[in-house]
Amino acid sequence: MKPRRNEWVVAVALVAGCGARASAPQRERPAVADPQASLELLDGELDAAALERVLSLSPLPDPPADPTNAHADDPRAALLGQALFFDPRLSKDGETSCATCHDPARSFSDGRTLAEGVTTLRRNTPSLWNVAYQRWFFWDGRADSAWAQALQPLEHPLEQASTRLSIAHVVHADPRLRAAYEATFGPLPDLDDTQRFPAAARPVADDEHEHLAATPALGRAARARDQGSRPPRHHEHDGPAHFYHPHQRAWDAMAEQDRDAVTRVFVNLGKAIAAYERRLVSRRSPFDVFVEGLRENDPQKLAALSAAQRRGLALFVGAARCHLCHSGPLLSDREFHDARVPPLATSADGERAERGRSEGIERLGRDPFNAMGPWSDDRNAGEVRSGFLSSHAHGAAEFKTPSLRNVALSAPYMHQGQYATLDEVIEHYVSLADAPPGVGSAERLLVPLDLDRSAREDLARFLQALTDVDLDPALLAPPHLPPAPR
Amino acid sequence: MGSGDALTLTWLSGMILALAACSAPAPGNAPGHAPCEAAQAPGQPRDPEDPGAAWHSATSRGGSYQVSWRPARGVLPVNEPFELLVWVEAERAPGGPVEGAEIIVQGDMPDHGHGMLREPRSREEAPGLYRVRGMLLHMVGHWTLSIDVLVAGSAEGADFELDL
């Protein structure tokens, strides 16, 4: 096997493989008809390197396959998932659906600083636009598939607060939901047998108490920002750490095969919801039309961006260096950074409890629904996705880079909704005046930027050009499920 | 210009860039970093999927090993999972492939203050030839790749520079 070094030859054709600079892009992109003509049409606004960076940001291809969800592209599953997404019966109070926080009228978010469930939660509600392109879910990436993400709020005591048994009963008792389920996933278990299948039951994680509420300081700060928002409903969650939860008690009383059968139903419902969410794609914003214009040397399409937006784009891929993290056609690297955003509240029980990605990795490892686990439809693909994570145990909290597609519609911004407007976000990155000191793995590239007021406005205007809400209206409301066959 | 011409042009420009990258260390390389040496061992090790692949080689910091690597699929993707093939030979007599080692790969972005967000693992596929799974370089920019060879509790590695 030994390659004798003195026989190694430097062949020109092979040298092309040396160094990353010679590597081919991982995904084919449409060709540019005439790069020089495009540069001339832009009248010197971009140089060749900047043009290449701009081209790397569009178009957004079809969503990547999710082999961990065998039903991801099944239209029947998507229709069922859409029904579930809007169904408030999947909550303890019968009033809260996925769409309560991920409201289509609010860009699949809620417009709040922090999410509001039974009480104020710890983080800002992310939009669901283009969620199928994500690699990690939640701000800390504690889920590694869209279907595993969808399951967590359903049973979270401060979100929909339901149980997998309660939800299975809802589907079983509704003829249309049941028919839609069984047409896709096969027969439901015999949930009429209440001896075997109690009304409510779920496994309760040992550390559930640790992850329940936002701190009081965070809640106060969020409510102060969201003037006019409804006050949180009163809820106490200070039970003893080893309290034997009735949901757990009921779960433990079930036969193992019945527990597995119910968990299978629960997982399938998550996969159906994810199949619906895969359709929430936004990919032809004015910016995308502009990039088509660059590829086709089409001045009409180039006019999709105003002069100010074009200046903003040049800053985005140039002096402001936004493209380093907001990279690729999703305008996100889908990974995690400490962008030195100050915490919403700084009391002793506030931000210091926040560990971001390092906590997310720990929780992902304990999640029975992770992509490497028994409920994944492709555990090998799951291992590639999640099997090699480093601990991130050092440094400050890191959070996921959000996509910037439709960003203008999802204020407020950052993991705790710290900034009410895009102008405030830009101000943070330009001045870093509010940034806590960078420690550990804080992004060292973050330095104050020399951008005057007009440049900041150009950048904000460019971000406005990333909006495309042209979606089939049928996806924005509960679907009409066909009646059950007789 | 047809797509074939565009491909040829891309290939040629890649070749020119690569020649420049391999002829000398990039400016700013830390002292002692070996220049990227891309060469083909005629015959071995060869990947049936990509028999023409080039390897990057450097002598380890303590002079014990010659460490060679290449992306298993020939290209180094940005922000996508990939695997490395690593070939380790003893520099000192009697030479030969270094068997039974564990290969530890770390990627760092010195300009950013952070590095790769993955901990890859290796498996020996043939004497001296290791497959490293779990690589992902999530950003464009300057990376340093440290490939350590762990044998009998003792680690010694080689450093490489990359510009994605």
**Sequence of secondary-structure elements of chain B:** HEEEEEEEEEE
Number of strands of chain B: 10
Unreliable spans of chain B: 1-44
**DSSP strand (E) fraction of chain B?**
35-45%
Derived structural class of chain B: mainly beta
* Multimer state: heterodimer
Biggest interface:
A-B, 50 and 67 residues
Number of DSSP helical runs of chain B = 1
Mean residue pLDDT of chain A: 88
The N- and C-terminal alpha carbons of chain B lie at a distance of: 27 Å
Q: Numbering strands along the chain, what is their spatial order in the largest sheet of chain A?
A: 1-2
What is the percent of helical residues of chain B?
A: 10-25%
Topology pattern of chain A, helix = H, strand = E = HHHHHHHHHHHHHHEHHEHH
User: What gross morphology of chain A would you assign?
Assistant: globular
The largest sheet of chain A, given as strand count, sense and whether it forms a barrel, is: 2 strands, antiparallel
> What is the strand content of chain A?
under 5%
Reported CATH architecture of chain B: Sandwich
Q: Describe it for me?
A:
The complex is a heterodimer of chains A (486) and B (164). With 486 residues, chain A is mainly alpha-helical. Chain A is 35% helix and 1% strand. Chain A has 18 helices and 2 strands. A two-stranded antiparallel sheet of chain A has the order 1-2. The longest helix of chain A is centred in the middle third of the chain and has 22 residues, at 256-277. Mean pLDDT of chain A is 88; it is low at 1-26 and 230-238. With 164 residues, chain B is mostly beta strands. Chain B has a single domain, classed as Sandwich (Immunoglobulin-like), CATH 2.60.40. In chain B, a hairpin with a 4-residue loop joins strand 5 and strand 6. Chain B is globular and about 40 Å long. The model of chain B is unreliable at 1-44 (pLDDT under 50). The chains are: A mainly alpha (486), B mainly beta (164). Chains A and B meet through helix 1 and strand 1 of A and helix 1, strand 1, strand 3 and strand 8 of B.
